[in-house]
Design goal:
Layout lengths: L7 H10 L1 H12 L6 E3 H10 L6 H13 L3 E4 L8 E4 L3 H8 L37 H4 L39 E6 H9 L3 E2 L13 H12 L7 E4 L6 E5 L1 H12 L24 H10 L1 E6 L1
Parallel strand pairs: 5-7, 6-8
Antiparallel strand pairs: 1-3, 2-3, 4-8, 6-7
Length: about 300
Amino acid sequence: MDSKTPDVDALRQLYKDNPVARAFFNHAARRERDQSETKVDRILVRLRADGHNFRRREIIDLFRKMQDQGLGQFVEGRHGWPSRFVWSTGLTSVGLAAIGEPQTIEHISSEEGVVDGNHKEIDQSNIDRPTGTADRTEDFEGEELGEVGGTGLEEELEDDAAISFEITEPFDPARIRVDTKPMVISLLMDRIRNKEIDLTPGFQRKGGIWSKKAKSQLIESLLIRIPLPAFYMDGGDESKWLVVDGLQRLSTLKSFVIDKTLVLDGLEFLNECEGKKFDQLARNLHINGMRLLAVPLHLC
């Protein structure tokens, strides 16, 4: 995480010169509590509700400028993880300072740094992108806004006021249990074949809404053993788990491995796999993706 001390004067100049920054910092200053991270697509929705019509790229450019100012770190999304800004400073204090309030920018202490869903430091510098390949985050434009993201990740509500509920009876937090276990993809597919994972629970929207390119690039990540985000399941009934988070990823895997209907298209690294189905891949790729790569599975 960038430890640079934010320059309040530079922050206020950014607010003055940049209409995207002005809208964002006005929003931040109105908040009652801070966030650990701000997702690109979520803030687009918030700002559009305020009457602004910014492009996704403009928000990303702002987040990169904020990183340069030492406010946190911009993390580029990839295959299920949304693009986001991870704060090292207090969001609300930044907003107040930017709009001209006599506010000291608060720092957030973090011993973990920026991590992905597998609790590993994110370092994208070791992935060489082919010349001429567009930023893959653009491929997901509009998809992270779909089924609370279209990425299979459940979006967190930014404000307590965004949801209305009432606790009608006491509960004991000690009784809430989440079991975490690594599981290889082949075992997940076996459970789907045996109808031991419900891909159509009533609280989920339908699976399979990703574009063909997005699906293919998820499979490519799997084949080159890039760790996937965790899956969350309701394991109350051991004979049939309910998918809480990860529906789009599981639906994509099913269409490729079980249904064999997905033809790979738009790959970034494995050009030799372009236009192929699961059964047409080399055996070593089957082993890499299906048997060697374990993903975190949270059963609750």
